[in-house]
Amino acid sequence: GAGVSQTPSNKVTEKGKYVELRCDPISGHTALYWYRQSLGQGPEFLIYFQGTGAADDSGLPNDRFFAVRPEGSVSTLKIQRTERGDSAVYLCASSSTPGTGDGYTFGSGTRLTVV
Amino acid sequence: ILNVEQSPQSLHVQEGDSTNFTCSFPSSNFYALHWYRWETAKSPEALFVMTLNGDEKKKGRISATLNTKEGYSYLYIKGSQPEDSATYLCASLLYGNKLVFGAGTILRVKS
Known about the structure:
Oligomer: heterodimer
Order of helices and strands of chain B: EEEEEEEEEEE
Low-confidence stretches of chain A: none
Helix content of chain B: under 10%
Distance between the termini of chain B: 41 Å
Mean pLDDT of chain A: 94
Strand content of chain B: over 45%
Number of helices of chain A: 0
Radius of gyration of chain A: 13 Å
Order of helices and strands of chain A: EEEEEEEEEEE
Number of strands of chain A: 11
Low-confidence stretches of chain B: none
């Protein structure tokens, strides 16, 4: 596609429920990143995929968070047993080169609200 | 822990004013410095990726400089316009392709 697409754009869920957030990167971009932005803070790294594999998942806050990219394109971020503290904007980005190149292309994010 | 700091936190200027923001980052193990502009309800947009000490980059009325030895970068906007209103984020690239972001500078330009 022309840009990075994230769905849904907004998600309201009840505490304890399971949610999936989807990211469709730019075609051909091998690197895919998930970030989370809480109010008043900068985006916080969650996980980085190179192809199908998670090259760095050190930012996932706990084992309730999991992400996959089975075919090296679309990625899904999965959150189990959601908590109110998970409320944030979840950003996805992709790139064709390592971060010394042209910068990342971001999606417009999924705003997750846990009530 | 790598801390990327941005100042000021927010800035209100009049149309036509020139302005600048600061990004500071640890100078050890430096790989690259990214600047992004993030308008409300849109995607963060890459402005510059800078890698070399002394680098200066320009895009229209916006320019940036980089000092990797002392660990800071400045972003300048000349003749601010209302459409420049956005959050400006800087981020330092760590080994392993991980970007660490600052909290951003919110710019509001009044017409």
